[in-house]
Known about the structure:
- The chain has helices at residues 2-9, 12-57, 79-117, 245-252, and strands spanning 67-68, 71-72, 128-130, 133-140, 145-149, 152-155, 161-163, 168-176, 180-187, 191-198, 209-210, 215-218, 231-238, 241-243.
- By secondary structure, it is α+β, with helices and mostly antiparallel strands.
- A hairpin with a 3-residue loop joins strand 8 and strand 9 (180-187).
Amino acid sequence: MKSNTKEKNNNPKKNAGFYIALALCITAIGGAAWTTYSSVLDYQTPKEESSAQSEDSKPKDKPTDKTVSGLEYSKPESKTESSEKTTNTILESSEESSELSIEESSSESSEISQENENKFIKPIDGKIIKGYSPENPVYSKTMGDWRVHEGIDITADDGEKVRAYSDGIVKKVYNDELLGYSIEIEHNNGITMIYSGLSPTILVKEGESVSCGDYIGAVFTIPSEIMDEVHLHLTAKKDGKLIDAQAVLEKNA
């Protein structure tokens, strides 16, 4: 019985199978180890590449030099500087606008003032029935003779209001025996007008300033021309000398 046991243990075929199985196990273990190692390598490589890409994507430090790759580099303005520039621009624009507004306003005011100074109007609406004749006498129905006519006669309705020819100052208010109640106004353009044949109710006083178009009185009667139709007798002077009132009105009014 003992001899059989020894034979079994010393069987060369069985021993060979054991070693083959051992070799296969070692081979399998080695293959698994290699596979695991390869996987670890594959897993680590993307991280390194990703890390490298991440490093490349990080913003680089701002260049301290004034040029970058041949291009001029300008430092961006801070919010404070930008705000100050915007504020200064608005202030400058506002000042220019104000100056323009002042100049325009001054120009308009000058034009209006000039327009007022040069504004004239006919004292009364009507037609001239007797003209200026300081040298050649004309016949007077009322007086029944020939005499010079130093003013012009403009038809009007009885009681029709008379207006100031232009801006000026009232120099005299009086009652003339031949021409009736009269008002003498020295106008700003150097012309003096005498409005005659007015009613006793005078609307202005001596020394008073009048504006163009102001009512100064109303048409009434003229003692030396009472036979003529109702009219305003208007006389004009310049530098104390008689001039043609019709020419003055046609030129300015």
